[in-house]
Specification:
- With 262 residues, the protein is α+β, with helices and mostly antiparallel strands.
- The chain has a single domain, classed as Fumarylacetoacetase-like, C-terminal domain (Fumarylacetoacetate hydrolase, domain 2).
- The strands form 2 sheets. Strands 1, 2, 3, 4, 5, 6, 9 and 10 form an 8-stranded mixed β-sheet that branches.
- A hairpin with a 2-residue loop joins strand 7 and strand 8.
- The longest helix has 18 residues.
- The protein is globular and about 50 Å long.
- The structure holds hexanedioic acid (0L1) and magnesium ion.
- Magnesium ion binds next to strand 1, strand 4, strand 5 and strand 9.
- It comes from Bacillus chungangensis.
- It holds the Pfam family FAA_hydrolase.
- GO terms for molecular function: 4-oxalocrotonate decarboxylase activity.
Length: 262
C-alpha cells in the first residue's frame, strides 16, 4: 500500500476506534512497513483529524515509555511521545466519565508548563528547567485503542501514545526549586497505597525526558511552545480504573492531585 494511503487508513481507523470505544488489532501485524517514523506521521494525521472538527486544539505533549521497565518490556531504548489536546483535560472537582473509554488505566506524573519555547536539537536538562515556568502533580489516563493493550512501538506511537485524559493539580511550583530526581511520590487507589517512587524513575530525571522530547520534535521541525503542558512520564506502573474508584498522587513538596470516576 502507498505510504499516504496507509497513513490515512490507520489514522482513520484509530479515530473511529476511539470515537466508538471499540478495540482494534495492532496494524504492524498486517503492515510490516509500519515503523516508528511512519507511526509518528500517522499520529500527526490522527491529531489533524481530531482538530479538523474545530472542537479541540493542541495544548501540549506527553512522554511515554520513560521507565527502564517499560523500555525493556517493549524492547526499545528510547521513549515515545504523543500530543495533548484541550478536550483531554479534566479537573479534580468533577467525576470523570469512563463511559466512552475502552480499558482505561491511570498513572502518576509530573506536569511541566512552559512560558517560553524550547528550540534546538541539543536541548539540555538545565535548559528545560529554565524554560519551564511551573511544575505540578498530574495523573494521566491512558487508554490504548489496541485489543488487550497489545502493540509494538510503531503501533503505540500511531495511537498517540495511548493518550486519553489528564488531570493537573491546581498548585504550581518553580521546577528549579526542587531536585526532581529525588522527589518522592505516593500513588493511592481507594485509600490504599499501590506504589511509591521518585522522579528518577523517569529516565533518571523528569526534565531529561523533556529534553529528549524537545530534541526529538526538532527532527520534524516542531518545538515545545510557550504555553504548552508536557506530561513528563509515569513514575510508577499504570493501574486499571473503574467507575467509583478514587485515585490520588502526592509528591514531596509540590502537593497532590486526585481524580474520581463515574
Ligand atoms: O504514557 C505512557 O507511558 C503510555 C505510553 C504508551 C504505552 C502504554 O500504553 O502502556
Ligand atoms: Mg503517561
Amino acid at each position: 500500500m502507498k505510504k499516504t494511503a496507509l497513513i490515512e487508513k490507520v489514522a482513520t481507523a484509530l479515530f473511529e476506534a476511539e470515537s466508538t470505544g471499540t478495540e482494534v488489532d495492532k496494524f504492524t501485524a498486517a503492515y510490516s512497513e509500519l515503523d516508528a517514523e511512519l507511526g509518528y506521521q500517522i499520529s500527526e494525521r490522527l491529531i489533524e483529524i481530531k482538530c479538523e472538527t474545530g472542537q479541540t486544539r493542541i495544548v501540549g505533549r506527553k512522554l511515554g515509555l520513560t521507565s527502564e521497565a517499560k523500555m525493556k518490556q517493549m524492547n526499545v531504548d528510547e521513549p515515545c511521545y504523543g500530543t495533548l489536546l484541550a478536550n483531554m483535560a479534566c479537573t479534580e472537582n468533577e467525576p470523570i466519565s469512563l463511559a466512552n473509554l475502552i480499558h482505561p488505566k491511570i498513572e502518576p506524573e509530573i506536569a511541566f508548563i512552559f512560558n517560553r519555547s524550547l528550540e534546538g536539537s541539543h536541548i539540555t536538562v538545565p535548559q528545560v528547567l529554565e524554560a519551564a515556568s511551573y511544575i505540578a502533580p498530574a495523573l494521566e489516563i491512558i487508554d490504548s485503542r489496541y485489543r488487550h493493550f497489545s502493540f509494538t512501538l510503531p503501533d503505540v506511537i500511531a495511537d498517540n501514545a495511548s493518550s486519553s485524559r489528564y488531570i493537573i493539580g491546581d498548585q504550581f511550583f518553580k521546577p528549579t526549586e526542587f531536585n526532581l530526581a529525588l522527589m518522592g511520590m505516593v500513588f493511592k487507589k481507594n485509600g490504599k497505597i499501590v506504589s511509591t517512587g521518585t522522579g528518577a524513575a523517569v529516565m533518571g530525571h523528569p526534565a531529561r525526558a523533556i529534553a529528549w522530547l524537545a530534541n526529538k520534535l526538532s527532527q520534524s521541525g516542531k518545538t515545545i511552545q510557550a504555553g504548552d503542558v508536557v506530561l513528563s512520564g509515569a513514575l510508577a506502573g499504570a493501574i486499571d480504573i473503574q467507575p467509583n474508584d478514587h485515585v490520588s498522587v502526592s509528591f514531596d513538596g509540590i502537593g497532590s492531585v486526585s481524580a474520581s470516576f463515574c
